[in-house]
Design brief:
The complex is a heterodimer of chains A (621) and B (175). With 621 residues, chain A is α+β, with helices and mostly antiparallel strands. Chain A is built from 26 helices and 17 strands. Classes of the chains: A alpha+beta (621), B alpha+beta (175). Chains A and B meet through helix 4, helix 7, helix 8, strand 13 and strand 14 of A and helix 1, strand 2 and strand 8 of B.
């Protein structure tokens, strides 16, 4: 199959050690098999694996891939994915970012960037259509993320230029450092920013002028018009534009899965201080959208009075408000905005940061961390000063921040006894949904390929609404469908929120992709390719040591009952989890004992070379 | 006379205006070929606003054109491709920075109101663009279009006693 549109046909290989950049042609078969975005990233990551790879060493390859629908006039086409071996987890990692950065890569005539090596001094990459330069970034050392973006845009050509950058935390190799673009859109998870930092790469600036290739633009516009019209006339569009994901705070609290005080509870008595209504009535000054998105879920907020007066940034969204609000026992919206702004500027992930600060507070309160460990702080629930101080210590790697900067794994290496209260899977701190109240969510966290993140599956809402009485079969079905369909959006380079939040028909995306490449694709075709990529990312992580024993949610899920709210007293049932995990492996074609994809599974995926490679590895064990 | 009026406090910065403009005029997916561009400032002030031709009554672009290629018909200033030499004098002359250039094109890119039914106005999901008889203020520079947005000021004092004045636009629901 030869795509007749959709692809620029090249990936830019950059070796920062030698200072060489090459436009590498992407074969048609590769494009048709891996589609783009996460698919490209996973395959390139597999191909670049070498024995003994250090995630923060020059051999780790950072692949940035926007996907074939990115940048088009279709709803929410601004998502681009970042991939590499994660320094937080030591296994496959990826994260995606909204905004306009990915589209600019495509406008520069590229389907992706693949960056390895290490520059000999702090540098930034400048891609101006065909021109590629590695330039000195000494003047940006230690600069905040949005400040760096401002400086580079002003130097290089203003709004025609898109910039992705790391903050000081990326330079300092904090393993949950982010890559930031468009004033506060982040590739937040699994430490992409640390990998950039380890390569001495402060920023990537891109300007492109090429057309994005589309085979049948009229057919595309016909589908796109339907999609835009559906969203425009949706009854929830108004509240969505006004509050975006901040509406989820009230929903999560009412239903009973809002992480509260380090996931100890799932109901927060102070939720009214941090919800969407508070934001909208007191702090929001403007909407903010990613490229081509009518939903504009971003909320730009400003604190006008009080202690944090003058704090302004894009955000927060649900995860940030939950992790710095209820999860730290804070019911004060201005603090959440302050934390959000600090994280953006320092370049650290709000989910991991809020999660880890929660662990520290609980550990200190239980007496598991001593005052000596705390550099004089006495962190408590609702304690804004300690939280701000901890963020700064993390970004600099000072004091207790030295261990926290290495994420859960660093924390547990120093204080193994904290494993009991650290809510993470595979070294990635859990995002803001309680996993005790929904077995599907526990399985989603346990089997997500990057660790405890809801990116691959977010089945909690559906299970709680209609699946309480479901059998395990139906629950596995739901998780597997999510893990197949959600990555399709990441492969195409579009946002999944129109589907999740406003229930747009996911088949429309297959129609759009067909019009763009000039080859008929059904949703099912895309789901099959998505499944192949799930097996591939699993194979990467298997090669790096992941087995069945790592596919479990955090200990708290089974051991500590929810303390209040609708699910008071609830824990997940470990036997039920064993049963659903067995069923899950069976359905995936992974070995039940080890969790390794079976040979015949990989062969039927068309991943013969991966199958052979894994077989050789396992024979050696 | 109808003109495109920009209401910055409604703009979310989604750039649908850019994409639909380029698609309508050139049949391509390429925001760099649009006659309307999102302009964003951050962090002080935080503002997003599209920049687009105002179809001025006293058009500097037309006055600057050495070949008379900028022609007024039905209240719309258009570039006549047969007369235009692509010297870019109009680009420099426009006080709003609202005429754009693309290396593939033989003439600068200037809003022609889609002959009366502007696509950007039709497609803006936030109603930040309106086709109106009113002129959007009387600004003389690009920066003035921001002033039109109704900037508000906030002075804050940090713990060391240093004062900083922040400017911002109070947005809100479409009126």
């Amino acid at each position: 199959m030869k795509p007749r549109g959709g692809y620029q046909g090249y990936v830019l290989d950059v070796d920062l050690s030698s200072g060489r950049a090459t436009r590498r042609e992407v074969p048609d078969e590769f494009a048709m098999k891996y589609i783009g975005g996460r698919g490209y990233g996973a395959r390139i990551t597999w191909d670049s694996l070498v024995p003994g790879l250090d995630p923060l060493g020059p051999q780790n390859t950072l692949t940035i891939a926007p996907g074939p629908l990115n940048g088009l006039l279709i709803p929410s086409s601004g998502k681009t994915s970042f991939h590499c071996i994660s320094p937080a987890t030591g296994i496959y990692g990826d994260s995606n970012m909204g905004g306009s950065f990915g589209a600019e890569i495509r406008l520069a005539g590229l389907d992706g960037l693949s960056i390895r090596g290490r520059a000999d001094r702090l540098s930034y990459l400048w891609i101006d259509d065909d021109l590629v330069e590695i330039r000195d970034a000494g003047h940006l050392a230690g600069c905040g993320a949005t400040q760096t973006e401002r400086t580079l845009k002003d130097d290089l050509g203003g709004e025609d230029v898109r910039v992705a950058t790391v903050g000081p935390a990326g330079e300092n190799l904090v393993v949950f450092a982010t890559i930031n673009s468009d004033w506060g859109r982040n590739a937040g998870r699994t430490g992409m920013g640390a990998v950039m930092g380890s390569k001495n790469l402060k920023a990537i600036a891109v300007r492109g002028t090429n057309d994005l290739p589309v085979y049948d633009i009229e057919a595309l516009m016909e589908v796109s018009d339907r999609a835009f019209e559906y969203l425009r006339s949706h009854t929830s569009m108004d509240i969505w534009q006004r509050q975006g994901l901040m509406t989820v705070i009230d929903y999560a609290n009412t239903v009973g899965f809002l992480p509260t005080r380090n996931f100890g509870d799932a109901f927060f008595e102070g939720a009214e201080g941090i919800n969407g209504d508070v934001m909208e009535s007191g702090y929001k000054i403007s909407d903010s959208a990613c490229l081509a998105c009518p939903m504009c879920c971003g909320n730009v907020c400003l604190v006008k009075e009080g202690r944090w007066a003058g704090t302004a940034c894009e955000g927060p969204e649900y995860e940030t408000a939950a992790m710095f609000g209820s999860n730290l026992g804070v019911d004060d919206f201005p603090f959440i905005l302050k934390a959000n702004q600090l994280c953006d500027e320092l370049g650290i992930d709000t989910i991991s940061t809020g999660n880890l600060i929660g662990v520290v507070i609980e550990a200190y309160q239980r007496g598991w961390l001593s005052p000596d460990d705390m550099d004089g702080m006495k962190p408590d629930w609702g304690d804004q000063d300690s939280a701000v101080r901890l963020m700064e210590l993390i970004a600099r790697g000072d004091g207790i921040g030295k261990y926290l900067a290495r994420g859960s794994r660093g924390l547990l290496e120093k204080w193994p006894e904290l494993a009991r209260i650290t809510v993470q899977v595979k070294g990635l701190e859990q995002s803001a949904y309680d996993s005790r109240v929904s077995l599907c969510m526990a399985l989603a966290y346990g089997t997500c390929d990057i660790g405890a993140h809801h990116t691959r599956a977010w089945p909690i809402s559906k299970e709680l609404e209609m699946g309480q009485e479901w059998g395990l079969e139906e629950k596995v079905d739901l998780v597997m469908y999510h893990q197949a369909v959600r990555p399709v959006f990441d492969m195409l380079g579009v946002c999944r929120l129109p589907w999740i939040e406003l229930s747009i028909d996911e088949n429309l995306y297959a129609e759009m992709y067909s019009a763009v490449v000039g080859i008929p694709f059904t949703l099912d075709d895309l789901l099959k390719r998505s499944k192949v990529i799930y097996d591939l990312t699993r194979a990467i992580s298997v090669k790096l040591g992941v087995r069945r024993d790592q596919d479990y949610p955090a200990p708290r899920t089974f051991k500590d009952p929810v303390q209040s709210g609708p699910f008071e007293g609830k824990t997940a049932d470990p036997e039920e989890y064993e049963a659903i995990l067995n069923m899950y492996y069976e359905r995936r074609g992974w070995d039940r004992k080890t969790g390794i994809p079976r040979r015949e599974t990989l062969i039927s995926d068309g991943l013969e070379d991966v199958a052979a490679d894994l077989e050789a590895l396992l024979e050696g064990e | 006379m109808k003109r495109i009026k920009v209401i910055p406090e409604r703009c979310s910065g989604c750039r649908i205006c850019e994409l639909t403009c380029a698609n309508y005029h050139y049949g391509v997916m390429n925001p760099k070929k649009s006659a309307i561009r999102l302009f964003s400032l951050y962090p002080n002030p935080i503002i997003r606003t599209p920049i687009v031709c105002r179809q001025c009554d006293d058009p500097e672009c037309q006055k600057s054109c050495p070949t008379g290629a900028i022609v007024l018909t039905d209240g719309i200033l258009r570039i006549d491709p047969d007369l235009c030499t692509n010297c870019l004098a109009c680009v420099d002359a426009c006080p709003y920075g609202a005429i754009f250039v693309h290396p593939d094109l033989d003439t600068p890119i200037k809003c022609d109101l889609c002959s009366g039914q502007p696509r950007c106005v039709r497609d803006c999901p936030k109603h930040a663009l309106v086709l109106s008889d009113e002129v959007a203020g009387q600004p003389s520079l690009v920066g003035k279009s921001i002033e039109y947005g109704g900037m508000e000021e906030l002075t804050v004092t940090d713990p060391e006693g240093k004062e900083t004045t922040l400017k911002y636009v109070q947005g809100g629901r479409p009126r």
